[in-house]
Specification:
Radius of gyration of chain B: 19 Å
Helix content of chain A: 10-25%
Distance between the termini of chain B: 47 Å
Number of helices of chain A: 3
Number of strands of chain A: 13
Number of helices of chain B: 1
Strand order of the largest sheet of chain A: 5-6-1-2-3-4-7
Order of helices and strands of chain B: HE
Shape of chain B: rod-shaped
Number of domains of chain A: 2
Strand content of chain B: 5-15%
Strand content of chain A: 35-45%
Oligomer: heterodimer
């Protein structure tokens, strides 16, 4: 699932009340998991809310809504972001990653982040894992992919721990070999990439 | 100018202001993907990513 599919989803309680809508997805770089969401009001003229939603208060995440038990699950947005900050020490941190340049640890520019891919299983209720970036591929990356330069938007698998600043996101150079243009098969690419990283360390 | 001319001008002004307000709010509500940490995201508690583009 792409984070762009989550933005603007309504936040609904199990009693059926539509209390807010998702604005930003907040993730912690260390562990590469979604920590929560910032929220906006539901009305046409409603702006961002001072309240956010931590991931551990999410009961279910589907294509049409984010489910919570009741509106007591909402908490100050600073708390949500601080919770993500406390787990991302040492991994770097920054603001919005959309638009950031993707650099490998060998200094190659792979392109610009256009979306973030997450993985979540409603059945096990576990963490919501950040597994990849959708990137607007650089010319160098397009030229190096085996399928040539047909697609400008490619999916790049990520390791468990991410390095992010306000301008760049860093990925291992070996990620370039697992770039995919197919979301359906992307899970396998992520698994293979992470297995290779663990084998190499 | 006839009286109805002023009415039309007033209506146009109201519509333009309403469209501008909705556009501003839509921009404020547009989402992004932010990384927890002492970056620009948590400044002033408002957490407005300004539309998700640099």
């Amino acid at each position: 699932m792409r984070t762009s599919e989550i933005a603007t989803l309504p936040v609904v309680t199990l009693a059926g009340d539509d209390v807010a809508q998702v604005k930003d997805v907040v993730f912690s770089a260390d562990g590469g998991a979604v920590a929560g969401f910032t929220l906006a009001g539901r009305g046409l003229l409603a702006g961002p809310l001072k309240q956010g939603l931590s991931w551990h208060h999410v009961v279910g995440l589907g294509p049409d809504a984010v489910m919570i038990a009741d509106d007591s699950a909402l908490e100050p947005v600073d708390t949500v972001i601080a919770a993500a900050s406390s787990t991302s020490a040492g991994a770097g941190s920054g603001g919005n990653v959309l638009g950031d340049r993707v650099l490998t640890d060998t200094g190659s520019d792979l392109g610009k982040v256009s979306d973030v891919v997450i993985e979540y299983d409603n059945a096990d209720g576990g963490p919501c894992d950040v597994v990849g970036y959708e990137i607007e591929a650089s010319d160098a990356l397009k030229a190096s992919t085996s399928k040539g330069s047909k697609h400008t938007r490619l999916l790049l698998p990520l390791p468990d721990t991410l390095a992010v600043s306000s301008e760049h996101v860093m990925v291992p150079a070996s990620a370039e070999g697992f770039v995919s243009d197919d979301l359906a098969g992307f899970g396998a690419a992520v698994q293979a990439f992470r297995t290779q990283l663990k084998g190499g360390s | 100018m006839q009286w109805w001319g002023w009415v039309i001008v007033a209506l146009v002004v109201v519509v333009v202001v309403a469209v501008a307000l909705v556009a501003v709010q839509a921009r404020r509500r547009r989402g992004g993907v932010i990384v927890g940490g002492p970056g620009p995201a948590d400044a002033a508690g408002g957490t407005d990513t300004g539309g998700g583009q640099p």
